[in-house]
Design a protein that fits this description.
The protein is of the alpha/beta class. It is built from eight helices and 13 strands. It has helices spanning about 25-35, 45-55, 85-100, 135-145, 175-185, 200-205, 220-225, 235-250, and strands at about 5-10, 40, 60-65, 70, 80, 105, 110, 125-130, 150-155, 160-170, 190-195, 210-215, 225-230. The strands form three sheets. The chain has a five-stranded parallel β-sheet. It has a five-stranded antiparallel β-sheet with strand order 7-6-8-10-9, covered by helices on one side. The protein is globular.
Length: about 250
């Protein structure tokens, strides 16, 4: 069994349901962060991640934009970015605009929700937002043949809709975790990872201890070492209490 040196946590559907992290989950994460670094790994933008990292008292680099960005939660500085090719990004934006699909186009200095607000095409991520699962599947099918693109559909726990995240080829949460591991001087299998959706699958694939939430796709549950109760039942806190802390205490003895 590897030594566990850091923990990676998805945000929506894992750490929380809506915008608030429960006291029990926050307390459980705090107990872990006293022993090893904890990083959020989410599709959300940098400002959101910095906010939640601050609430949880996390000081290690955090993963955002679906794995396209690492940030310092204290300063907000971008430590690493992976950009999409302009031709690919503009094609996605054009398709979403023609279909009147809401989107968030993220770049190192912020984000844009309309074409006219995209001043530079150094985009790290594009998210098609608030669509049905069938429309999400349609977008995935439409762009799945693009060789310079990574895309994944994501269930939005906070409103019941779906999203599709577009990043550069090979850029996802797992790839960002490998960059983070290199910065920390650890091996990828020293991570403990927890998630609930398809975009968390790359995290579980590289981690040494894998936690899937009850709502996770079956493929993630089959890969997981532990399936946590539902997020609404503070499932992450239960996973930390029953599996993570005992494992960390054993290696500390």
């Amino acid at each position: 069994m590897p030594r566990f040196s850091a923990m990676l946590l998805d945000l929506d559907g894992t750490l929380m349901v809506t915008d608030e992290i429960s006291v029990r989950v926050a307390d459980a994460v705090a107990m872990v962060s006293e022993l090893i670094p904890v990083s959020i790994a989410t599709g959300r933008r940098a400002s959101d991640v910095r906010d939640y990292a601050g609430r949880l008292g996390l000081v290690s680099p955090q993963i955002c934009n679906g794995g396209a960005t690492l940030i310092d939660p204290a300063s907000g500085d971008h430590l690493w970015n992976a950009h999409m090719r302009e031709e690919v990004a503009s094609s996605i934006i054009e398709t979403l605009s023609l279909r009147s699909i809401p989107f968030i186009a993220t770049h190192p200095n912020g984000d844009a929700k309309t074409v006219c607000h995209i001043k530079h095409w150094d985009l790290t991520r594009i998210s098609a937002m608030d669509i049905t699962e069938s429309h999400a599947d349609e977008l995935v099918s439409m762009f799945s043949g693009e060789p310079d693109l990574n895309l994944v559909k994501v269930y939005l726990h906070y409103n019941g809709w779906w999203a599709v995240d577009f990043t550069a080829d090979g850029v996802h949460k797992g790839a960002a975790a490998l960059v983070l591991a290199q910065r920390m001087g650890i091996e990828a299998n020293e991570f403990i990872a927890a998630g609930d959706s398809f975009n968390d699958l790359p995290l579980l694939e590289i981690a040494g201890l894998r936690i899937a939430m009850d709502s996770a796709p079956q493929v993630m549950k089959e890969l997981a070492d532990y399936v946590a109760p539902a997020v609404e039942e503070d499932g992450l806190a239960i996973a930390i209490e029953e599996v993570v802390l005992p494992a960390l205490h054993v290696q500390g003895d």
